[in-house]
Design goal:
This protein is α+β, with helices and mostly antiparallel strands. The chain folds into four domains: about 90 residues, Rossmann fold; about 55 residues, ATP-grasp fold, A domain (Dna Ligase, domain 1); about 130 residues, ATP-grasp fold, B domain (D-amino Acid Aminotransferase, Chain A, domain 1, 2-Layer Sandwich), CATH 3.30.470; about 90 residues, Glycinamide Ribonucleotide Synthetase, Chain A, domain 4, CATH 3.90.600.10. Helix content is about 30%, strand content about 30%. α1 runs parallel beside α10. The longest helix is centred in the middle third of the chain and has 21 residues. The radius of gyration is 20 Å and the shape is globular.
């Protein structure tokens, strides 16, 4: 069984690593891959936003299973196009992927299906923002409606800040291109949890829980990033809460999408705020998260290829998802300047000295003349699992102390809430 993974980041490296352990998997190909993935799988060039190019790649490779990692090809309709070719492809259709590709759609969907979320307003101009702000407290969140690579969320402590952020979004200054609409959202308070459910169009089955660390600075300070580290433990969510979330969020979303004629198959990644009033959904993502996936894959005992096939075929009731007991942790090594401007091409040293029991997934690397160099803001995802979080983190940080590249930065407090 040949498997093709679309994407080239740390998430895809972890998926390739996990898929290779499948009992029936003979080869894993990754497109486009990166400087680390090429060490464990054959990599083929492809533009993940070019559906026609992906179709040509699939025609040439003829994989038994295609797993799509990033959100861009999902929003572009890659699953629709490949499914029309008769390919077994893991991921939601373009219509189902609107749960991520349009925050406005997602909020309206949650309202229709009584999925708990923050109060909100969808606005299409600065004037509409100014009018809608009267219904919110001073602290408010401004979110770009479409895909924004983790950069389309601004936390505002005053209405003036919210208006300024909205102006920058509509004017194209914040994201490079003007947005057509945005979402104003009530500012929620509490710890954030990432909930992952595998879905087959009929049912949602819990894969696991993790906690991401979005801010660049220790103590959760500074601007938001794509994620500076994550951990997963048995204690993160109680069994009772896990089942409540499966029923009230995961299954309710699957039921709603089916009823509206857009069955959801793939991974539903729900960002949750555990507020004093109970869990509320911050956002839906329609693919594996990053860096949570790196942590979760180290704990996954279930055959990932079989799990993906069952989701596509509507057979999740035949699969029991099992995680290793204990904990796993992932810490991101990032380029200097990230999440702002950063330089690439910095040689990476020390990966040959990483101790056993630690996996280094490559988020943004490339091979140039045989030398591994940085090629992104987030460069490496250093990951380990063990019986408890403290031990897993100790393994990760010991490995990071032996890795270096010019300007390397990472947080030394991943998991601080749980350890406290």
């Amino acid at each position: 069984m040949k498997v093709l993974v679309i994407g080239g980041g740390g998430r895809e490296h972890a998926l390739v690593w996990a898929l290779q352990r499948g009992s029936n998997v003979t080869e894993v190909v990754c497109a486009p891959g990166n400087g680390g993935i090429v060490g464990i799988a054959r990599c083929e060039p492809v533009d993940v936003a070019d559906v026609a190019a992906m179709k040509r790649l699939v025609e040439r490779e003829r994989p038994a299973l295609v797993a799509i990692g990033p959100e861009v090809p999902l929003a572009a309709g890659a699953v629709d196009a490949l499914a029309e070719m008769g390919v077994c492809v893991f991921g939601p259709t373009r219509a189902a992927a609107q749960l991520e590709s349009s925050k406005g759609f997602a909020k309206e969907f949650m309202r229709r299906w009584a999925i708990p979320t923050a109060a909100y307003a969808v606005c299409r101009s600065v004037a509409e923002v100014a009018e809608a702000l009267g219904g919110f407290a001073q602290s408010v969140v401004v979110k770009a409606d479409g895909l924004a690579a983790g950069k389309g969320v601004v936390l505002c402590s005053t209405h003036a800040e919210a208006l300024a952020a909205a102006g920058e979004m509509f004017g194209g200054k914040l994201l490079g291109d003007p947005v057509e609409s945005l979402v104003l959202e009530e500012m929620l308070v509490g710890p954030e949890i990432s909930y992952f459910a595998v879905c087959d169009g009929e049912r949602a089955v819990t894969l696991g829980f993790a906690q991401d660390h979005k801010r660049i600075g220790e103590g959760d300070t500074g601007p938001n990033t794509g994620g500076m580290g994550a951990y997963s433990t048995d204690e993160l969510v109680s069994e009772e809460m896990a089942e409540w979330l499966r029923v009230q969020v995961g299954q309710r979303a699957v039921d709603g999408m089916k009823a509206e004629g857009t069955p959801f198959r793939g991974v539903l990644f729900t960002g949750l705020m555990m507020t004093p009033d109970g869990p509320k959904v911050l956002e839906f993502n329609t693919r594996f998260g990053d860096p949570e996936t790196e942590a979760l894959m180290l704990r996954l005992k279930t055959d990932l290829a079989e799990l993906m096939e069952a989701a596509v075929a509507g057979r999740l009731h035949e699969i029991a998802i099992q995680l290793k007991p204990g904990a796993s942790a992932c810490v991101i090594a990032a380029s200097a300047g990230y999440p702002g401007k950063y330089a690439s091409g910095k040689p990476i040293h020390g990966l040959d000295r990483v101790p056993d029991g630690v996996e280094v997934f490559h988020a943004g690397t490339a091979l140039r003349d045989g030398q591994l160099v940085t090629a992104g803001g987030r460069v490496l995802a250093v990951t380990a699992e063990d019986a408890d979080l403290k031990t897993a983190l100790a393994k990760v940080y010991a490995a990071l102390d032996g890795i270096s590249f010019e300007g390397m930065q990472f947080r030394r407090d991943i998991g601080w809430r749980a350890l406290a």
